[in-house]
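User: Hey, quick favor. My workstation is busy. Could you predict this chain's structure for me?
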Amino acid sequence: MVTRRSVLGGVLGASGAGLLTAGGLVPLLQARTAGGDLAPVAGSRAAAAAPAFSVRMPRLPQLAPVSTLGGQDTYLVTAKEVDREIIPGVRTRVLTYDGHFPGPVLRARSGRKVVIRHRNSLTMPLSCHLHGGSVTPENDGGPMDTFAPGKERTYTYPNQQPGASLWFHDHSHHMESEHVYRGLSGSYLLSDATERALPLPDGEYEVPVALRDARFDGAGQLVYEMDDMGRTTILANGRPSPYFEVAARKYRFRLLNSSNMRFFQLRLADGGQIVQIGTDGGLLERPFVTDTVGLSPAERADVIIDFSRYPVGTKIVLENTLGPGTPDQVGNVLRFDVVRKAADPSRIPDVLRRLPSLPKATVQRSIVLSMDEDGRQDPRAYLDGKVWDAGRVDQSVAFGSSEIWTVTNANKIIPHNFHLHLVQFRVLERNGTPVGPAEAGLKDTVRLFPGESVKLHATFDSYRGTYVYHCHLLDHSAMGMMANFRVR
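Assistant: No problem, here it is.
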């Protein structure tokens, strides 16, 4: 049997060397408090989650359209508050799409329109953003473009873009952080003909997995505090450190980091191979073999794990090697239990797809992310030294142009990431060096550890209008780290 090894050193590499500081990301040590311990929530005790690997990881439910007429798939989705079992034996109040925690999976096809009628049965305004989608401004789910309690809002997604692992979530300003934390997110898996022609694992052997963290009070209810580093219960598809039964063959896992704040660095406990085939914007050009997968909040990774190398009876742990938190708190993500043999006609082609050549960039911009990190009572978060103003246009972009944006994290302790609405971009450089294969495909979210900078190439040739860009550590964007750009 393969057993879990505690990894204290982390798998950060050169780019993560600056993270080993109090208050930032650490390799499985402690969260940021003066004594190095996790701070308790005032007036409460933490509810004890189940022992690791004592509950089964469920498969995420798939949404079914209410109509497929007229060349489009129409869905009806209701945002509602319900009680669900997360910790075994405890009912936790959560916010959901159609009662599902975490949110469901919607499968769409490139070139076929999707229409979603959202009903708001909550007590707060909502706005639903298709993260990574190329859509018109009125369908983007902007922070101020909300619909009230008791009302409906229809979003139309043309899906005129290549296949990609998208997701959807609430984006109502000042509330997006808490709403997403309490459950308002789901997966939107867009496929295209190129992907469907590949002999990759599919059907029951393609498994979407939504990862996140949480903190519970003594009654087993979710605790929400802004910028909380004490969320140390790791959930996979809504259950704490579960197990998942697999056959001794290849599986495709569609990984989503749906956390507000937590970065994951994932590995198999035995250091075994993981083949990454895709990222935010869909398939890479070529697969590559790795032993670790990093995901900042909102990033996605499409990976294949071949369990045929393990005998039936093996139990192999997917570990997280990044804090804050201790190995026992945040190290155990998911255990794969190899329970049977199975035929495996799937394979991983040497070439997955061809990405188009980058057009010449005619504009260069510099973007700086920063946040108060001096311990003040009410910290603010900034883009280019400004907090978000819904009425201010921060960048004006010519329709059809290609641009290079250099984005820098000016903080010394606090990590960020960067999400640009409307477009998928290419990451050219990280800290002046060409990026590795995990960032070589199409992206819409990119990590920025303290002091790091990335150079992005984006082409704005789909829709005109005003959109936002922001840090996707949602607590940070809710604190002001967001700005507007207008495609004219």
